[in-house]
Amino acid sequence: MPEDLKKMLIEYIKKEYLDEDSDQEITENTRLISGGIVDSFSMVSLKMFLEKKFQVKIPDEKATPEAFDSVNNILSLLKEFTKL
Amino acid sequence: MSYSDSAKAHFAAELKSIRESGLFKEERFIESPQAARITVKYPWGAPSKEVINLCANNYLGLSSHPEVLDAARAALEVRGFGLSSVRFICGTQDIHHELEQKLTEFLGTEDTVLFPSCMEANVGLFEVMLDKDDAMIADRLVHASIVDGMRLCKAQLYNYKHSNMDHLEEKLQETQACRFRLIITDGVFSMDGDIAQLDKICDLADKYGAFVMVDDSHATGFMGRTGRGTHEHCGVVGRIDVITTTLGKALGGAAGGCVSGRAEIVEMCRQRARPYLFSNTVPPVVVAATLKVLNVISRSTDRRDKLEANTRYFREQMTRVGFDIREGIHPIVPVMLYNATLSQNVARDLYGEGIYVVGFFFPVVPQGQARIRVQISADHEREDLDKAVSAFAKVGQKYNILGKKKDEIIATYGT
Lengths: 84, 415
What we know:
heterodimer; B: Aspartate Aminotransferase, domain 1; 2 domains; 16 helices
C-alpha cells in the first residue's frame, strides 16, 4: 500500500473534517464514522471526493459506514476498484 | 403468516440495541394546552404534575393565544374540518391563497407555497430545483430534513464546515463548472441556537453566481427587528432565493410549512414537488389560525420584544449562577454538560423540581458535547424564569458543576 496515498487521505480528512484549532490526531486506524469525525451526511462528500480523485464509481451498496470508518478501510475499498 | 418469529426477533433485537445505546425516546403525556406551564403525566398512570415548560418551540407563546383559538373556532364553522383532497384537485380554499400571499408579504419574497410541514418542504425542494449538472453546497449542521431532501436530489453534494466562510468559498471555487450552485443553510441552528452569517453567505453567492436557500424554522416570527427572520436580522431581506420555514414553531405551532422565494421556483414546487402533490392540504383551521398569528405579530412587536428580553434575562441569570452556556442571543440556550449521563441525570432532577427540559447527546449532538437545550418563550413570566434558574442552581450544586468550565466538568464526569 503506497504510504503517500495513506498520508494524502489523512491530510485530506484533517483539512476537510477537523476544525482549524483541533488537536485531534488522525491515523490510518482512527474511527472516522463511529468516532463521530465524519457524519453519515459528510460521508457522501467523502465518497464523491474519492470517486473524482481516483476516477472510479463506488457502488452505493459498497459505500457502507464500515467501509469508510478508517483510512485503512477506505484504502481496502479503493483496492477493489483501482490498481493501487 | 409472513410476520414470522424470526422477523419479530429481528425487530425486538433492534429495539433492544436502541435502548442499550441510550437512544430510546420516551414520550411524556401532557394534559393541558401548550403553554409556559403545562400539566404532565409521566410515566402513564403517575399523578399529574404542573411543570414549567422549557423545551417547546412555542417561542412567541401563540400556540394557545385566545385570538388564535377564536380564529380556529370560527374557521371550523365556516370552512369545515378537513378537505379530503390534495391542493390541486379540490383542496385549495380562498384562505390557502390568502395565507400564501400574507406569508410572501411577511417574509419579503416573491411568492409562497404551503406544504404540510417544513420537513416536507425540505424533502421536496431540491429535487425540483436541481439536476445532476448542479451542486448543493450545504453547511455541515443543516437539519435532518434537508439532508433527506438532498439525498433525493441528483445534484452533486458538497458540504462546508459549520459556518466556515473560507471553507464555503473553497467549495464555490471547486464547483465553478456546475450549471447552478445552491448554498444551503439553516438560518438558526437548532442545537446551538447560533445564527448563520447570511450577509457573508449572500456576498459569496453574488461573487460566485450561486443561489442561497435558508431553512428559517427557528427564526420566522421573532428574529430581526420586526420578526421576519434571520434574513432581517442579517440585513439581507430580498437577497435569499429560497426560504423554507414552519408554521409549527413560533407561528402558532400546529402544523404546516412553506417554500417562499423566487416566483419560478415556488411555481416549480407547485407543479413538481412530490410531498406537495401527494399530501393532503393544510387543514382550514390551521390556515385561518395562522392568518391570525400573522395579524397579531404584524400589528405589534410586543411578543418578540418580550421574548428577546426573557432570553437576555435567562442567559444573564444562568451565567450568574455559574452555568457554562453557549453564548448567543437566540432563545435556544444550550446549557453545556458534555457528558451524556450527566445531561440525563440533570434533566431528570430538574423534572423533580418542576422544570421540564430534555438532555441531548451523541448522535444528536457531537460526541462529548451533551447538553440541556433550554428554549425560552414570550409566554414565560419573570417568575417562571426565576423559578427555573433556582432549580437549575440547586441541581447544578448537587452535581458540583456550578462555576466549572468545560475541562473541569469533563475531568469529573468524562465525555
